[in-house]
Amino acid sequence: MDDLIASPHPEGRDNEPTETLRKRLVYESRKRGILEMDLILSTFANDRLAVMNDRELREYDRFLTLPDWTIFYYVTGKAEAPEPWRSSEVLGELLHHSANKGKNVRRMPDLDVK
């Protein structure tokens, strides 16, 4: 996975400050285009982004560059992700989050207005 993080970001965002990255990831997690992904990723982002370190944030950022349906199949376990994603800690957390074993009712998180 470190090789993936060390590779150039497909959209040229390698030098983005961590807090800017975190804020962008909140937005990108909410606005996927597929409602199911909006719900899964926005609730994941709400729960996890604040405590993720820089490496985890950049791994999640790379993951979000995948097509929506690919992400959907990987995070719901409908398809097995190829390497390097199969061994990704972030994907493991997403799989756990998506499984929602606690049967929590989820809704889109509110945006913090400042």
Explain what you see.
This protein is mostly helical. It has one domain (2-99): Flavinator of succinate dehydrogenase (DNA polymerase, domain 1, Orthogonal Bundle), CATH 1.10.150.250. Helices cover 54% and strands 0% of the residues. It is built from six helices and no strands. It has helices spanning 2-6, 18-30, 35-48, 54-63, 68-75, 89-99. The longest helix has 14 residues, at 35-48. The chain is globular. The mean pLDDT is 86.
Chart the SSEs and their pairings.
Layout lengths: L1 H5 L11 H13 L4 H14 L5 H10 L4 H8 L13 H11 L15
Helix pairs in contact: 2-3, 2-4
Subunit structure: Interacts with the flavoprotein subunit within the SDH catalytic dimer.
Main location: mitochondrion
Pfam families: Sdh5
Spans with pLDDT under 50 lasting ≥5 residues?
none
Structural class: mainly alpha
CATH class: Mainly Alpha
Q: Give the topology string: H per helix, E per strand.
A: HHHHHH
Number of helices: 6
Number of domains: 1
GO biological process, one term: mitochondrial respiratory chain complex II assembly
Protein name: Succinate dehydrogenase assembly factor 2, mitochondrial
Biased composition (Basic and acidic residues): 10-20
Subunit structure: Interacts with the flavoprotein subunit within the SDH catalytic dimer.
